[in-house]
Q: What sequence folds into this?
C-alpha cells in the first residue's frame, strides 16, 4: 500500500523533559519519526518542551514549537498550523495522554485532525486498566486477578479480598509512577493514595502479586494489512517485583524454551491485532516457571523504553518503521537485508545483548536504595558480546561507576556470607555485586535463587566468573599464565580489572595481551528497514569480520549512560559534530554504549561502534580505524576521564589539549593564570585531608564551597558552615589523592551566578550570550533556572564577563567549546570555574540565539587539526528580541523520603524551556512546562528562615498586589505584618491543629514559599516540602524564584490569562537582528 495522500501535514508530540521513567529514548523515537516522514514528503510540525534534545533543533521538523505540553498549547498550535494528522505513539506516555485529552475536549474533531499510528479507543484499551482487562478476558488471555479502585478505602477492600501482597498499578502512567508492591494495609494506604494522585483518571488497579515470576517482554510491529512481526524477545533477569526499567535484562531470551516463546508471540499478536496499533507495541508477560502459568502484565500501545533497547539490540529501527507504517506503507514494501522485505523479518543475531540500569541514589542522601515496581533508574547501558558472560562484563564497565568488573565493589568483600545474604533479601542497585561476593564466600546457587528469584542459569554463569577470578588472584605479584589470560578475555574480563586483580598497571596487561596476538575482533549488526547499513560490536571470541576504508576519519567519543549531571545535552553536541564532520568530507566514527540516544542511531555517523567508553575498548577501535584523531570535548566528563590515558597510549586528542583540561581542574595552576590576567576569583585552596582543609578554612573563613575535582553535576559538592561540617565532609570523601584533591573555595552568599558558553579558536573567542541564573550562587547551575538574555546584569558586568572569557580562552589555548561560570558579588565579577569542553547549556544557547555552537566548534577543531585556524570574523553579537528561561525538572516525587531542597549538588534529571517576548511570560511558561503550573489566584503559604525574611518581602508584596491571600507561619507572619502586608498565621505541625499539613491535605494552599530551617533549628520542617510533592502543590525554596514567580503570574494575569501569540522556533529565529 503506498503512502497516504489524504494527509500532508503531521503533528508529532514529543515526550517533554527527561524524567525517571521517561528518558531520551522518546527523543530518539521522535527524531526517527521526523526523519522517516520528511523522507516520504510530509510536512512536520513538532511540539516538545525539551531544549536539550536534537529533536527540537530547527532542522529536524518544518515547524518546531518549544512549548508546554498541555491542551492549551496544543490547541493554539493546531489552530495556527492546521495539521491533517497527529502521531501520538512516539512521545511516550506524555504524548498518548495529551492526544487523549485533545480528543475528549473535542479539539481534534473541531479541526478535523486524524489520529494515525494508534486509535483513540486503542489508547483507552491499552492504558485504562478496566478496558484492558475486558479486552484480555475477551481474548482468553490470563491476567493476574485484579480490580480497579478510585479511592483508598476501595483499594483496601479489594486487597483484603485478594490477600497480601498486592501490586498497585495506576492507570495512564509510566515508569511505574505512583505504584508499588505492598505487603500490608498501612503500605497500601500510602501507595494507593500516591497512585490515585499520579493517575490522569484517578484510577489504580489492585492486582494479585506474581512476585518472583519470570518477566518476559516482546516488541511486536503491526501494519495496516494486519501483518505482524516480533522484533525482539527480551528476558528480564530480575524477576517480577523489579520494574522493567530497573531490571537487568538480556536479548535474545536465554533460558526460555522455543515453545514458550511461540506461545508468548501468539498472545502478543492477539493483543496487538485486537487493539489495532499500527507500528510498535511492547507487551509484558509474567511466567511461573513452577506451574507454567502465563499472565499478561501490560501493553504499551506505543514505542517504549524497551523499543529503543530492542531497536539497538537487533538493528531494527522500530520508531522509523512505525512512522512509515502510520503513513500508510506496509511491511512488505520496506526493505530487509536478509529476506527482501520486512514482513519476512525474524530476530537472527548470533550474539547476546545485555541492558543494565544506571541509578543515582548517591545524589539523594536519605533515599532508600531499594528497587520495586516504581522505576528509579536515571539511565541505562547496552552491551553486545558473543556470550552472556562477555556481554555482562562489558555492561558493568560501561556504567561509569568506576567499576571495571563485578568483584571488590564497595566494601562487600569485607562482609561475612551471612551479612551478604541478609543484604539480598530485598532488591537493590548493588544486588549483582553483592551476589558476586556471596558466591566467592561460598553461597549456594539454589540459596541465591530462593533469595533473589534470579534463575540458576544466570547465577551459575556468575559463579564461573568468580571461580575464574579466584584462579587469577592466585597469580597476584607474578605473571598471569597465557591460557588464563586468554580465558579471562573471552569471558569479558577487562584489562583494567585484570590489572586491579594482579596489582599491576593496565598498560602492562595490554602489552602482555597484544604480545599474545589477543585483540578484539569485530562483527556487524545489519540494520533492517533501510539499504546497506550496519553498526559494530567487539568480542575476544571472534576473528575480525569487518573492513576499514582509507578515507580521512575522525572519531567522536559519546557520553555513555544518562545520569544526573550528564544527560542528552552532550549527546546533542556529539550528533552535531558527526553531522558537521560528514559535511566537511570526513568519515565519522561514533563510540557510545547508550541505547536511548540519537548518537547510537545507525545513520548518525558513518560507523557506529556500540562499545564501552574505556581505554581498552576505545584504543582497540583507534588502532583498527587509524583516524586523524579523537574528539573528546563533546561527550561530557566520560571521554575526559580517559583522555589522559588515551594520549599516553599514542592517541591524538583533537581540539583543546588534555594539558588545558587538567589545568582548569588544578586550582593552584588555574589561580596563577587568573592572577596573571588580573581576574578575581574567590579565595580557594586544595586539600587531600581534614588537616589541610581546616588550614585553608582558617585562612579564608567560612562558609566554604567544597567539592571533588574532575566531576560533573556538582557530584559531592557541599556548602560547609563550620569546622565540624568540614571534618564530616572530608571523612566521607572517597578517592581523594594528590592528583585528585578536594577543592575548597570561599562561598559567596547572595551572589548572582552567571555563565557563558563560548567558541574559541585559540586566539579569538565568541560569546553568543551571557546566562543569568535566577537562583543565587549555591544552587547548582544545572538545577537553577536561567535567563537568556540576562535581565538583571548591567551592561558593564556583561562586557566584563565577555572580556574575561575571551582572555581566559586565549591564555589557555582553548580550541572548540568552553563554559565559564561567574558570580557577581559586591558589584564585582568573580570567576568560579572554567570548563574547556561542551557544557549542558550548549543546546539551550544554540536554540535561543540561533547559533550552531557544536558545529562551529567542530570546524575550529578540524582547522586546528590540519594546522590552520578557523576564522570567527563572521560571528557577530545579535540583539535577541525574545527571552528563553530554562527550568530544571527534579525527581523528588520518586524519592518521597528525601527533603526536596536545592543545593550545590545537581539533582535534576532534565529541563524545559519557556520562550516568549517577555521575561515574565517566558518564566511562567517554563514553570508550566515542568507540569508545576503556577496558580493565578488562591492562597500562598510563606514560611522562611530568618536569613530569608528580608528577601521574601518583595515577592510577598507582589502576591498581595495581584490578589493572592497570604498565610504564614508565626515568625514570617509577624515580619510581614510589621512591613504592612496583610497575612494570616498558620500553625506548624508541632504547634497544634489545624496546621499546615491539614491546610495542604484540604487543598487550601495553592503555592508554597518555604526555605529550610538552619542547622541549629530544633525542628525539622521538611514535611512541608514533602507534603507539597505528594499533593502536587507548587513549592519554591529560593527567594529569587519566589519573586520571579510572582512577576510571571502578574504578567500572565495582565495578558488576559494567556501567553503571547504562539510562535515556532523558526519564527523566533527570523526575528533576531544583527
A:
Amino acid at each position: 500500500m503506498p503512502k497516504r495522500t489524504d494527509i500532508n501535514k503531521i503533528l508529532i508530540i514529543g515526550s517533554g523533559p527527561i524524567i525517571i521513567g521517561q528518558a531520551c529514548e522518546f527523543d530518539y523515537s521522535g527524531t526517527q519519526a521526523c526523519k522517516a516522514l520528511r523522507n516520504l514528503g510530509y510536512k512536520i510540525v513538532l511540539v516538545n518542551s525539551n531544549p536539550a534534545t536534537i529533536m527540537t533543533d530547527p532542522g529536524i521538523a518544518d515547524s518546531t514549537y518549544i512549548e508546554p505540553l498541555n491542551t492549551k498549547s496544543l490547541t493554539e498550535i493546531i489552530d495556527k498550523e492546521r495539521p491533517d494528522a497527529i502521531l501520538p505513539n512516539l512521545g511516550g506516555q506524555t504524548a498518548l495522554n495529551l492526544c487523549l485529552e485533545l480528543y475528549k475536549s473535542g479539539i481534534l474533531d473541531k479541526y478535523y485532525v486524524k489520529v494515525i499510528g494508534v486509535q483513540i479507543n486503542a489508547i483507552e484499551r491499552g492504558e485504562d486498566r478496566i478496558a484492558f482487562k475486558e479486552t484480555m478476558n475477551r481474548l482468553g488471555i490470563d491476567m493476574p486477578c485484579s480490580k480497579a479502585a478510585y479511592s483508598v478505602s476501595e483499594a483496601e477492600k479489594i486487597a483484603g479480598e485478594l490477600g497480601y501482597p498486592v501490586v498497585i498499578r495506576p492507570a495512564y502512567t509510566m515508569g511505574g509512577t505512583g505504584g508499588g508492591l505492598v505487603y500490608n494495609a498501612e503500605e497500601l494506604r500510602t501507595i494507593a493514595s500516591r497512585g490515585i494522585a499520579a493517575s490522569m483518571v484517578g484510577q489504580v488497579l489492585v492486582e494479585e502479586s506474581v512476585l518472583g515470576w519470570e518477566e518476559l517482554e516482546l516488541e511486536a510491529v503491526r501494519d495496516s494489512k494486519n501483518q505482524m512481526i516480533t522484533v525482539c524477545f527480551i528476558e528480564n533477569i530480575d524477576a517480577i517485583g523489579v520494574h522493567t526499567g530497573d531490571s537487568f535484562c538480556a536479548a535474545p531470551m536465554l533460558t526460555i524454551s522455543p515453545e514458550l516463546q511461540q506461545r508468548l508471540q501468539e498472545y502478543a499478536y492477539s493483543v496487538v491485532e485486537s487493539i489495532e496499533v499500527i507500528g510498535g507495541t511492547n507487551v509484558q508477560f509474567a511466567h511461573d516457571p513452577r506451574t507454567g502459568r502465563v499472565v499478561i502484565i501490560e501493553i504499551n500501545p506505543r514505542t517504549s523504553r524497551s523499543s529503543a533497547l530492542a531497536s539497538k539490540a537487533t538493528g531494527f529501527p522500530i520508531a522509523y518503521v512505525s512512522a512509515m507504517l502510520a503513513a500508510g506503507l506496509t511491511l512488505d514494501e520496506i526493505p530487509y537485508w536478509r529476506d527482501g522485505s520486512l514482513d519476512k523479518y525474524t530476530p537472527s543475531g548470533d550474539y547476546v545483548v545485555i541492558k543494565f540500569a544506571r541509578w543515582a541514589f548517591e545524589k539523594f542522601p536519605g533515599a532508600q536504595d531499594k528497587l520495586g515496581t516504581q522505576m528509579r533508574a536515571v539511565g541505562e547501558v547496552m552491551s553486545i558480546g558473543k556470550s552472556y558472560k562477555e556481554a555482562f562484563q562489558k555492561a558493568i564497565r560501561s556504567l561509569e561507576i568506576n567499576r571495571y568488573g563485578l568483584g571488590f565493589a564497595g566494601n562487600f568483600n569485607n562482609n561475612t556470607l551471612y551479612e551478604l545474604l541478609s543484604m539480598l533479601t530485598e532488591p537493590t542497585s548493588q544486588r549483582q555485586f553483592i551476589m558476586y561476593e556471596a558466591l566467592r564466600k561460598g553461597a549456594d546457587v539454589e540459596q541465591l535463587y530462593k533469595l533473589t528469584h534470579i534463575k540458576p542459569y544466570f547465577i551459575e554463569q556468575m559463579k564461573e566468573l568468580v571461580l575464574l577470578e579466584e584462579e587469577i588472584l592466585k597469580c597476584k605479584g607474578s605473571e598471569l599464565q597465557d591460557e588464563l589470560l586468554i580465558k579471562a578475555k573471552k569471558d569479558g574480563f577487562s584489562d583494567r580489572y585484570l590489572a586491579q586483580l594482579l596489582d599491576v598497571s593496565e598498560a602492562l596487561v595490554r602489552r602482555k595481551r597484544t604480545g599474545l596476538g589477543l585483540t578484539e575482533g569485530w562483527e556487524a549488526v545489519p540494520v533492517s528497514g533501510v539499504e546497506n547499513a550496519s553498526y559494530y560490536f567487539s568480542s575476544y571470541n571472534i576473528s575480525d569480520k569487518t573492513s576499514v576504508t582509507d578515507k580521512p576519519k575522525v572519531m567522536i567519543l559519546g557520553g555513555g549512560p544518562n545520569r544526573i549531571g550528564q544527560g542528552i545535552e552532550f549527546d546533542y553536541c556529539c550528533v552535531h559534530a558527526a553531522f558537521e564532520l560528514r559535511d566537511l568530507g570526513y568519515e565519522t566514527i561514533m563510540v557510545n554504549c547508550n541505547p536511548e540516544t540519537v548518537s547510537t542511531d545507525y545513520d548518525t555517523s558513518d560507523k557506529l561502534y556500540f562499545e564501552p567508553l574505556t581505554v581498552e575498548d576505545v584504543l582497540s577501535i583507534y588502532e583498527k580505524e587509524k583516524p586523524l584523531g579523537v574528539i573528546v570535548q563533546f561527550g561530557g566528563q566520560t571521554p575526559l576521564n580517559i583522555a589522559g590515558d588515551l594520549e599516553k597510549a599514542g592517541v591524538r586528542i583533537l581540539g583543546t589539549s588534555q594539558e588545558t583540561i587538567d589545568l582548569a581542574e588544578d586550582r593552584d595552576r588555574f589561580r596563577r593564570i587568573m592572577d596573571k590576567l588580573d581576574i578575581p576569583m574567590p579565595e580557594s585552596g586544595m586539600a587531600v585531608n581534614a588537616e589541610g582543609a581546616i588550614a585553608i578554612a582558617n585562612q579564608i573563613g567560612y562558609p566554604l564551597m567544597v567539592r571533588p575535582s574532575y566531576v560533573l553535576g556538582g557530584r559531592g559538592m557541599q556548602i560547609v558552615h563550620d569546622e565540624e561540617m568540614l571534618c564530616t565532609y572530608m571523612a566521607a570523601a572517597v578517592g581523594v589523592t594528590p592528583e585528585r584533591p578536594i577543592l575548597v573555595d570561599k562561598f559567596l552568599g547572595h551572589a548572582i551566578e552567571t555563565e557563558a558558553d563560548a567558541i574559541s579558536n585559540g586566539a579569538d573567542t565568541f560569546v553568543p550570550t551571557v546566562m543569568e541564573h535566577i537562583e543565587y550562587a549555591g544552587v547548582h547551575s544545572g538545577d537553577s533556572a536561567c535567563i537568556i538574555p540576562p535581565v538583571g546584569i548591567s551592561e558593564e558586568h556583561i562586557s566584563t564577563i565577555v572580556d574575561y572569557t575571551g582572555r581566559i580562552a586565549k591564555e589557555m589555548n582553548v580550541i572548540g567549546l568552553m563554559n565559564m561560570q561567574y558570580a557577581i558579588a559586591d558589584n564585582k565579577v568573580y570567576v568560579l570555574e572554567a570548563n574547556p569542553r561542551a557544557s549542558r547549556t550548549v543546546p539551550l544557547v544554540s536554540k535561543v540565539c540561533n547559533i550552531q555552537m557544536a558545529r562551529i566548534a567542530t570546524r575550529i577543531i578540524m582547522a586546528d587539526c590540519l594546522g590552520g585556524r578557523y576564522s570567527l570574523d563572521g560571528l557577530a553579537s545579535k540583539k535577541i528580541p525574545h527571552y528563553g528561561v530554562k527550568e530544571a525538572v527534579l525527581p523528588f516525587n520518586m524519592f518521597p523520603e528525601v527533603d526536596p531542597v536545592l543545593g550545590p549538588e545537581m539533582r535534576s534529571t532534565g529541563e524545559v524551556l519557556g520562550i516568549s517576548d517577555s521575561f515574565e511570560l517566558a518564566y511562567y511558561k517554563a514553570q508550566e512546562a515542568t507540569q508545576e503550573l503556577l496558580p493565578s489566584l488562591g492562597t500562598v503559604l510563606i514560611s522562611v528562615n530568618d536569613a530569608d525574611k528580608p528577601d521574601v518581602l518583595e515577592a510577598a508584596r507582589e502576591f498581595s498586589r495581584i490578589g493572592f491571600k497570604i498565610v504564614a507561619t508565626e515568625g514570617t507572619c509577624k515580619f510581614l505584618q510589621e512591613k504592612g502586608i496583610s497575612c494570616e498565621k498558620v500553625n506548624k505541625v508541632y504547634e497544634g491543629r489545624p496546621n499546615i499539613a491539614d491546610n495542604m491535605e484540604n487543598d487550601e494552599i495553592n503555592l508554597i514559599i518555604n526555605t529550610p530551617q538552619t542547622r541549629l533549628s530544633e525542628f525539622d520542617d521538611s514535611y512541608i516540602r514533602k507534603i507539597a510533592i505528594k499533593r502536587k502543590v507548587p513549592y519554591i525554596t529560593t527567594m529569587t524564584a519566589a519573586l520571579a514567580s510572582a512577576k510571571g503570574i502578574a504578567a500572565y494575569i495582565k495578558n488576559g490569562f494567556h501567553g503571547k501569540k504562539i510562535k515556532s522556533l523558526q519564527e523566533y529565529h527570523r526575528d533576531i537582528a544583527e
Observations:
- The radius of gyration is 28 Å.
- The mean pLDDT is 91.
